[in-house]
């Protein structure tokens, strides 16, 4: 008999209008990394939430180390040695790293917190597993990659031996992903067992021993990763052959749509004098895809906020179709040709407690088509939403009526992309547009971006995915420490060379380049 540490047998979980898990069986061996692969909305996160006690299944049995158990909540899961790093981290932003790690497991004496032993244990764990952190830093001041380390240390602090990672690389840079893969290998060497939810086939090939595939809530099969190709796994996941390369003709750029002229952005933090964006200039023309590549935290976010109006710039100007919009409102930019797929879908992309229909008209509800005398035309709004839901395959339990908060992360992303591409625009500013999406959805969005370009739109793409940058771009601008350090032709540059520019090891003389752009 196989040495299974976790067995989920015949699990069924239903929500209004949808069977999220339909009679699924998943078995985790002790000391393995087991990937759970599936499209957006296939039921992966739901299944792991059942294992972690966040949901109760309608049918099915869970066994831990051969014993049947009933997991009523996360405390039960922790008591059984099961820990989980959620896709959207569960951290208290104004607490320190150390406070977050011990939260719920505090040592108290005479009503006072005793943190000395906790600090010692946390520092020993961070040393042992190579998870270096600053215990006194506030969560709101550290990078997303560091926040993830805090989540992993939370599990280790609780002595969890079964670890669930839900889309752990969705918000990480390529370097942080490599580090996480090594951390996962180290954890397994120490005797931990890992369940790893992902869409990324490269990551499965890099670290997983076995992979179970779900499709539309049903179990498709389990394979040994070493003996199966990425193409075979993607076909199991989507149910059809998927093209992993982008097909496009050479660009034929037209007139200038976006002109960024000597933009600088200062840090809002006291005592920080270094510019986050330092004298950046470039143009994007109709009929081309310009990509800003760079490791996260090199000023891309602040540059995008300056262009869209979400943040202030300290100097410089932005012109849209020849009109200076530097001092114009966000709505003015949106109604004068700018569409924006934001980096943070929860903070800037969606109103989570609105339904899907209202989220799909957030930028247009005030148009005569959707309102009359300040009253919304609900019939028109829902008709429009139904069209986008069908066209972009946005999966939701109750269609246009679904509250967006209850949708999977990938389907939330699809909703934003659908809204921004569908409305009239001259330039589409797409920041990490495929973050958290499965291969089928990525293929669709890449095709849509090329279609937009060929129809005459200008596309400004900000991406951390090197394959996406190389496949989609007509021109690549590399950003490092707030400055544009290179302008590259994707046909002539190698991935390795691009990586050197992104890391700051190499730079071009950009004098005169901005004028040529």
From TrEMBL:
Pfam families: ABC_tran (PF00005)
MF terms (GO), sorted A to Z: ATP binding; ATP hydrolysis activity
The organism's place on the tree of life at top rank: Bacteria
Keywords carried by this UniProt record: ATP-binding, Cell membrane, Membrane, Nucleotide-binding, Repeat, Translocase, Transport
Topology class, membrane: Peripheral membrane protein
A single cellular component GO annotation: plasma membrane
Listed Gene3D superfamilies: P-loop containing nucleotide triphosphate hydrolases
Entry-linked InterPro entries: AAA+_ATPase (IPR003593), ABC_carbohydrate_import_ATPase (IPR050107), ABC_transporter-like_ATP-bd (IPR003439), ABC_transporter-like_CS (IPR017871), P-loop_NTPase (IPR027417)
Entry protein name: Nucleoside ABC transporter ATP-binding protein
Stretches of the chain forming a coiled coil according to its record: none
Domain ABC transporter: 6-241, 258-506
Compartment list: Cell membrane
